[in-house]
């Protein structure tokens, strides 16, 4: 179910432009942006759905580089306690350029499990025919919080309207994505155990979309029943810190064009100590719905996004 087209077609007064016609709003993919942005003239009111160099946050190697730099800056300017608020991403090395540093770390801690990820491909990207030259080697979180014995991560949406000044909106809803198989480190090569993204899980023989997703509200209620409301508030406050610090880390790097906005999909893993870890940030989070509940969440997300983008100039005052 294509939620994006449904929402755009039902927007009062909006008309789809065919072929090369003039447009006011474009929900483009990043490949169009790369090829056309610098050659496209845009009037004052025109809006487009990505920042020019969004990859500063959404490519895994750049994201980690910017977070490390920002952490050093905080330590220099505000001290170690403030810098420690950036300790929410697993130890990561860019390959092949940091191979020797990785080998040194590997020898220092031989019992640790590492996961290799393409530095450009997101968890929502299902294209397997693209050759990959660069990877990141990332410390694998071996103690994830489990529900029913299964691993999961959280997809949370953040809309950024501007980087200078930084103006961001956190969407109240989101969902937990579960693996289809009970978690164990004994089968480290089983993707149905360790990878939670839907593109992988839906290829499982016994996959059922409803069993592999919980809405964020249900997840909060479950945690509150197990650990109490205070622990849940602390966890979600720590997640807010991840969103704010990660955006601040690229604030000076991203070109803040007034024509641009971006809806990011954050992937967060919770460990057994209820500590949230940032896995990656997606520039083009999947807007395809796998169930009716999923459809309702994503259509509401998109409608609210368009309200804030405000092409109709209802909120300007």
Structure description:
The chain is an alpha+beta fold and 317 residues long. It is built from 11 helices and 10 strands. A 5-stranded antiparallel beta sheet has the order 8-7-6-9-10, with helices on both faces. A hairpin with a 5-residue loop joins strand 9 (262-270) and strand 10. Helix 9 packs across helix 10 (229-249). The two termini are 36 Å apart.
Helix content: 25-40%
End-to-end CA span: 36 Å
- The tally of helices reads 11
Rg from Cα: 20 Å
| Morphology | globular
Q: Which sequence of SSEs, written as H and E, runs from N to C?
A: HEHEHHHEHEEEEHHEHHEEH
What is the strand arrangement across the widest sheet? 8-7-6-9-10
Average pLDDT, rounded to a whole number, is 87
Question: Stretches where pLDDT falls below 50 for ≥5 residues?
Answer: 126-130
Which structural class should the secondary elements be placed in? alpha+beta
